[in-house]
Design goal:
This protein is mostly beta strands. Helix content is 4%, strand content 36%.
Length: 448
């Protein structure tokens, strides 16, 4: 017994006979979780329990049939049998605490029915979430179909989630129609953005680019070829189609122009305007110029000699005081160098900075222009005073004087050696014979 039962008597008055009518009714008050006329029927519906062990209802024996029928229809949502209070044994295809939840393929929605992508709304009837279809919502929907049709560019793939295709290796894109190069399609930067990924891992490069991934710019015949190194003159790298990045010291579209000391070889002022820039900071100087930047004129092979001398232009020396000549290597005497006739020239003397003119033997004077004859100058009695010293030790005698030194008089135009005084006397003065003993006459030609 799952409740308290008793007999209830009620008295009524018959309206026509005033007869008293006594009615007795068997009445039970059931404990929670139980019902029925005699509290023998377990209760499973949510409305039959209030969570305590107190009586849950009063049932008369007269309404037993109707109550039992109604409760039978309400128990376990009509899809099962109530075995004990709150415990339903559900019929096939139903589940849940009160057998109110349908199953699809034997699973409740909360247990993964409808492939986890929908709601089981009736027995074996799924209502799919957006992006899924099929009786069990087992098919994700991809609007592209993941390719693979006659008009597809690729082999097609498999739709594994809404709008998500699982593509074969080497393919990608919404419809698995884009070839992949380096895991990227052309639209996402494959082939270094310089080409078209035409097949898995196969790039077709744009003009001006080359290499397996189109990452090598081409300046001449092909990306990264040895010709490209030559295109940049061996002085730079090809960094974009027909674009060189030059190493330090070179410029020009093809790195063909060297720079010397900050100026390009094409600049008129490079190498101080006196040479050619053939290599970086290496000037080839024109004749007459020298120095790292061809800034220094060159003169005499030995330079401009002497203190205070300098080379002012190619082959032009500015000589210091007392110096002259092409390389300032010669002393100046009287405003001239020896080559210009100073000191009478080399044959007459030498010009020295310290002493001026130093005359050679046979010459004298400030500029060595006066000859000496036998150690005497004209002024000091050269040629015995009877002639002119016309060259070193060379007298040109006057009148009737003869001899190397013009010191021999002649008598009748002859010296004694030439037969003067008829060889019978001594020519003591011009035309004055002193006759030997036994001879007389102007020319000592007569005997006494």
């Amino acid at each position: 017994m799952h409740g308290t039962c008793g007999v209830l008597s009620t008295t009524t008055q018959a309206p026509d006979t005033n007869e008293t009518i006594v009615t007795t009714t068997s009445q039970c008050q059931c404990f929670r979780g139980w019902g029925g006329a005699e509290c023998a029927q377990a209760q499973c519906s949510s409305s039959s329990s209030n969570g305590s062990g107190s009586p849950s209802g009063i049932h008369d024996s007269d309404d037993r049939d109707s109550t039992d029928t109604q409760q039978g229809q309400q128990q376990c949502s009509g899809h099962g049998a109530c075995l004990s209070p709150g415990v339903c044994a559900c019929a096939g295809g139903w589940g849940g605490a009160h057998c109110a939840d349908p199953t699809c393929d034997g699973l409740l929605t909360t247990s993964g029915a409808c492939s986890g992508a929908g709601t089981c709304v009736d027995l074996n009837t799924c209502e799919c979430m957006p992006g899924y279809q099929g009786a069990s919502c087992e098919e994700p929907i991809c609007a592209s179909g993941c390719g693979g049709g006659p008009d597809s560019n690729g082999p097609g793939g498999k739709c594994v989630a809404p709008e998500t295709c699982e593509c074969p290796e080497g393919w990608g894109g919404d419809a698995c129609s884009e070839a992949l190069c380096g895991s990227l399609p052309t639209s996402s930067g494959a082939c270094s953005r310089h080409g078209q990924c035409s097949a898995p891992e196969e790039c077709t490069c744009h003009p001006g680019w080359g290499g397996r991934t189109c990452a090598l710019p081409s300046c001449q015949h092909g990306g990264g070829s040895e010709d490209d190194v030559g295109y940049c003159s061996g002085h730079g790298l090809c960094v974009a189609p027909h674009t060189c990045s030059c190493v330090a010291g070179y410029s020009g579209d093809r790195c063909e122009v060297a720079t010397c000391h900050g100026l390009a070889a094409t600049n008129a002022e490079v190498c101080s305007g006196h040479g050619h820039c053939g290599q970086v900071d290496s000037c080839e100087c024109a004749q007459g110029w020298a120095g790292a930047n061809c800034e220094t004129p060159t003169c005499h092979p030995a330079g401009c000699a002497g203190e205070g001398s300098s080379c002012t232009a190619p082959g032009v020396c500015s000589c210091g005081a007392g110096l002259g000549g092409p390389g300032c290597e010669q002393a100046v005497c009287g405003g001239k160098t020896i080559l210009e006739g100073a000191c009478g020239g080399h044959e007459k003397g030498a010009c020295t900075a310290a002493q001026g003119c130093v005359c050679n033997a046979g010459w004298s004077g400030d500029e060595c222009t006066k000859p000496t004859c036998f150690g005497a100058t004209q002024e000091s009695g050269a040629c015995s005073g009877h002639g002119a010293c016309v060259a070193p030790d060379t007298c040109e005698c006057e009148g009737k004087w003869k001899g190397y030194r013009c010191d021999t008089p002649t008598c009748d135009g002859k010296t004694e050696m030439e037969g003067a005084c008829s060889r019978h006397g001594t020519c003591e003065a011009i035309d004055s014979c002193k006759c030997d003993e036994g001879w007389r006459g102007k020319q000592c030609a007569r005997k006494t």
